[in-house]
């Protein structure tokens, strides 16, 4: 089983990672875990006139690595193998696209992310992923 866990550095995203770690005991086989962080695209319009692309890419890498750090540490401590990737774009669409590219069996994600406004109801990214995804989506509170 291949599981995609979108990670934004929030406590909710880390709970999804912890859930996968706890679930290994009752799964028939150890899942293939893919961590994904999506960075909003910054370079639009005049931004590229003042900041070069290499600096922007470094920023994406730094922010993505920071958001993935705790999830990676939890999987390392549990001795679970995983892959990780940092995408740039609109989060819901990037998650669904990556899930299709990697042919994952399930997306497991937090119902609420870092954005306080989206936490008023079901997280807006989680809601959109459930609408767009062609694979099961398990939402973790």
TrEMBL record:
InterPro entries for the chain: Rossmann-like_a/b/a_fold, Universal_stress_UspA, UspA
Domain UspA: 2-141
Matches recorded under Gene3D superfamilies: HUPs
Pfam families reported in the protein's UniProt record: Usp
Family as reported in the entry's similarity comment: Belongs to the universal stress protein A family.
PANTHER family in the record: STRESS RESPONSE PROTEIN NHAX, UNIVERSAL STRESS PROTEIN UP12
Protein name listed in UniProt: TRAP-T-associated universal stress protein TeaD
Species the sequence originates in: mine drainage metagenome
Lineage: unclassified sequences, metagenomes, ecological metagenomes
Gene that this sequence comes from: teaD_5
